[in-house]
Write a structure and sequence with these properties.
2 domains, Alpha-Beta Plaits, four-stranded antiparallel β-sheet, binds ribulose-5-phosphate, Rossmann fold, alpha/beta, seven-stranded mixed β-sheet
Length: 228
């Protein structure tokens, strides 16, 4: 199976955790694309009443087109379950997200959610985080000053650009600075440092957040419980 097929395996298993009446956070990315399709199928066929909260305009558009009722994050203070993709997950169920530049909205939705499930293909499981460049969202004012500060700390910041070479902007109009750190030995310490940097709106370390990971493998979906 190719990577896309493995993502679909994970997404189609995760939809089993969706229950009637739930307010459901919907993540962003190619794995979530399959999830939204699978949820819409259950809404249609089983007449499930669910309400979605999205983390990007891409997901919002897809969900609405497929008939999933949607509300905004400002319309609720409680989400029952959020299902999202991830870029890396380590053995302690800590993760990196933001490959799709949506990590700020994703973190808001995830931290409003009672439960979080991540859906990934098996290539996303790692021993130590950091091979995937860690995304940060940086506000335009003083952004090169932030870059210099992070470079001085040895965090190897690189602005994310699109195929035309332009700076990628987030939903909020900010820039994405990817940190090529190699190995993140102490994710909590790095998160603390980044949280303290004025100018960085949010970073892609998602620590102590995920409850379950559904992994798409060649032999089917595997559910890993984080024990939190
Ligand atoms: O964090 C994300 C977007 O900001 C995605 O969840 C992450 O990049 C995984 O994407 P995909 O499912 O396409 O591999």
């Amino acid at each position: 199976m190719d990577q896309s097929a493995l993502k679909k395996v994970a997404a189609e298993r995760a939809v089993d955790f969706v229950e009637d009446g739930m307010t459901l956070g919907l993540g962003t990315g190619s794995t979530v694309f399959f999830l939204v399709e699978a949820i819409a199928r259950r809404v249609r066929e089983e007449h499930l009443h669910i309400t979605g909260v999205s983390t990007s305009s891409r997901t919002e558009t897809q969900a609405k087109e497929l008939g999933i009722p949607m509300i905004g994050i400002d319309d609720t203070d409680h989400i029952d379950l959020t299902i999202d993709g991830a870029d890396e997950i380590d053995r302690h169920f800590q993760g990196i997200k933001g490959g799709g530049a949506a990590h700020t909205l994703e973190k808001m939705v995830a931290t409003t959610s009672a439960q979080n499930i991540w859906i990934v293909d098996s290539s996303k499981l790692v021993d130590t985080l950091g091979a995937f460049p860690l995304p940060t969202e940086v506000i335009p004012f003083g952004h090169t000053q932030v870059e210099r500060r992070l470079a001085a700390e040895g965090l190897n910041p690189v602005w994310r650009r699109n195929d035309a070479g332009e700076l990628v902007t987030t939903h909020n109009g900010n820039y994405v600075l990817d940190l090529h750190v190699g190995k993140i030995a102490h994710p909590h310490l790095l998160a603390q440092f980044l949280d303290a940097q004025t100018g960085i709106l949010e970073h892609g370390l998602f620590l102590d957040i995920v409850n379950k990971v559904v992994v798409g493998t060649e032999s089917g979906a595997e559910v890993l419980n984080a024990g939190r």
